[in-house]
């Protein structure tokens, strides 16, 4: 069906990024049709202001003529004859802002499960409706015809699903997912990003095929995954990064958690001491912690920027070590339910998960396993010891070291603290340890410029010369002692530093 054209789509059609190309296409190919398809149309209808990625389909234009037309107006790269897509950067355009232009295509699955398991047939005369029929979800199967006149084509009622805030496959869900298993994770990601639900039959299809996400295929070089771990990581990280709580719920409801992140499941029903955790079990605590990402208190402390995927995943995994660490009075004779060493155990588990699913692989949203594990390992930083007694050198190590995500650790601590609800509710003083830590960091930062502290007053070689030492542990002790004195303000110049070193007992 063809729907009336909203004003926001008229504005999109005249966007300066594509307007010159549309005008030139119309003059060059009076019988041709040019369509804007997919996510950009969807996001315009939703009034989303995200970065626009333009996907165009050119109809009734032979491939050689289309390629010559594009080359005359900018740089062109053929993505592959197999897919029949050109990446076009107009003259004077940003190199990283290529426009994808393709002929209408149909796809036919010959084995199933992977996006490479299809034959692609490009046909300039193919009706646009047949091209849209191969797409994954109705909200992505929209086309805005740009030439010869503006018309919105919505053959699968994608606009109705946008209004209903529903993710639904184009056609039979089982067929769509059997063609490409990664579509299941894309559906979860779209639902999380858009704040939508997943239509019942579509969700049933996801649950039916989710177990196949790890399938492999025998090749001459050995077994190969049908869906790469990089694809899995990208979809998970994007989903959790865009809407952590929705992704948490959707992954569980769809069985993606069972298949991809089974280590999280023991958190369900893992009881916690109610005097410290009246919010419920570890699963409930984790979900509540995820909900604190970007809340009013978070924004007040850390700004309005969306929390990074690194922070989101650290909050997701911060208590993953509690179930295996759990000790109870009944089974182990403890005074209460305890989770001793769960931070270390959780860090090891987190690193293993991040490496198994190659979290570091996706561009833009990739997460380093070591940094992620570090955040889980030290998420209890404010719990151990008196904040006022922490040595400046220790604060430097954790919060001023460019190799460690100290700023992100504060965000994780905030979320964990705000999700820890003692009996009677969260008191006003609940964040006092985090407040005290923040003040200590700010005081230390005042010695330098931002997160960069002043350099050491003496180098190791100078200290060895002053004390007549060879390299060894004693030199390290002296370096640490001097740095401590410098950061405490007791030593301020190189001359004072030399006297300090000379006066230290061996």
Q: Topology, please?
A:
Elements: E1 2-3, H1 7-13, H2 19-28, E2 33-37, H3 39-45, E3 55-59, H4 63-71, E4 74-80, E5 85-90, E6 99-102, E7 105-109, E8 118-122, H5 128-132, E9 143-147, E10 151-153, H6 158-164, E11 166-167, H7 173-179, H8 182-194, E12 197-198, H9 200-209, E13 216-219, E14 222-225, H10 229-242, H11 244-253, H12 256-260, H13 282-291, H14 296-302, H15 309-317, H16 322-325, H17 329-332, H18 342-356, H19 369-377, H20 392-399, H21 406-418, H22 432-445, H23 460-467, H24 473-487, H25 494-503
Parallel strand pairs: 3-6, 11-12
Antiparallel strand pairs: 1-10, 2-3, 2-9, 4-5, 5-6, 7-8, 9-10, 13-14
Helix pairs in contact: 7-9, 8-10, 8-11, 10-11, 13-15, 13-21, 15-19, 15-21, 18-19
Give a quick summary of the entry.
The chain has 506 residues and is α+β, with helices and mostly antiparallel strands. The chain has 25 helices and 14 strands.
Write structural notes for this entry.
It contains 25 helices and 14 strands. The protein is α+β, with helices and mostly antiparallel strands and 506 residues long. The chain folds into four domains: 160 residues, Beta Polymerase, domain 2, CATH 3.30.460; 96 residues, cca-adding enzyme, domain 2; 182 residues, Hypothetical protein af1432, CATH 1.10.3210; 44 residues, no CATH class. Strand 9 and strand 10 form a beta hairpin. Helix 7 runs parallel beside helix 9, helix 15 packs across helix 19 and helix 18 packs antiparallel against helix 19. The relative contact order is 0.06. The model has no long low-confidence stretch (mean pLDDT 91).
